[in-house]
Amino acid sequence: MKRRNFIQTLGAGTAGICLSAALPACTEKKKDIKAIEGSWFEFQHHSAAEGKYWNATLENFTALQWDRKVKEIAETGMKYLVLLNVAIYGKSFYPTKLLPMLSLACEDPLETVLTAADKYGIRFFISNGFFGDWTDPVSLMKNPEINRLRLNAMNEIAEKYARHESFYGWYYPNETGIEGYYEDFFINYVNISSAEAEKLTPGRKTLIAPYGTRNIKTDDYYIGQLEKLNVDFIAYQDEIGVEKTRVEESAAFYENLHKAHSKAGRSALWADVEVFRFEGKVYQSALVPAPPERVISQLEAVSPFVEKILIYQYPGLINKPDTDIIAGHPDSIQLYRELVKNKYLQVKKI
């Protein structure tokens, strides 16, 4: 299972190319390193342990505070936000007839952030999950009852929110690890979701973010699978934060993916860069901001091979200094400063 789930993974350490002794070389922006163009986004982190430093804060965000947080992100130069989920634990993050709603200070956070995104020029990918037990993604993709609930939710979400200019597209959050190739049921899940998305919101874009990046066999069979996948963008997780890959390994994985995507000629290749580390054990402790020098090394590794870089994630892990809407670990302010200083976040007035 992916970083958002609790499956245990024996992985490599997170030592990056640039250690603290080499920080000056890392923090001088190189021309070939792409800026960060987007981030995952959430109203509540699904894991209480991982969301230790921001869940309680976000739970009490008012509509005005959500508006200001979207503006804060837009001011970094980011253009895209990816809503991780619209439901969790059998409850929704928006008013719906399908499920009870989570108790939050904001009456309709989805309407609120889309309205804010309309104002500030952000493009949102809206999730079509998690309906059912998110810790069992295979069931979420294969269970007929959950599949019906997901499609019903997509219809309801489109009816309620597709009028927003910021509703750029859909994100499909259910994933299984790639062990060489995609599972057939995953391709089926993606293509059914995309068919429904095209029916409900013609022309809107679609995104997935697979994990198991180091295990992909970028041969003709995989290229054939890419040709079958009906999705606009694939943002592969770099898996540095979950300690499955070392920074110095990741460039080769993305180079191979670049070649495969070029041959397939279908989905655009993006990166999903993990800007976190775990405070303690992987998957069992709080997410905290990674050292800035490690994050910069990650950006450097993937930049030559991908069209755009998204991060997991701004909420909880990056915060603008001198604001009263900080949500996350105190080190999130330093990560903001370093990324802005080196122009990986390109601050602008809105």
General description of the model:
The protein is α/β, with parallel strands linked by helices and 350 residues long. The protein has a single domain (20-341), classed as TIM Barrel (Alpha-Beta Barrel). The protein has eleven helices and twelve strands. The strands form three sheets. Strands 1-2-5-6-7-8-9-12 form an eight-stranded parallel barrel, surrounded by four helices. A two-stranded antiparallel ribbon has the order 3-4. Strands 10-11 form a two-stranded antiparallel sheet. The protein starts with 22 loop residues before the first helix and ends in a 9-residue tail after the last helix.
Tag the structure with descriptive keywords.
TIM Barrel; disordered N terminus; 11 helices; alpha/beta; 8-stranded parallel beta barrel; 350 residues; two-stranded antiparallel sheet
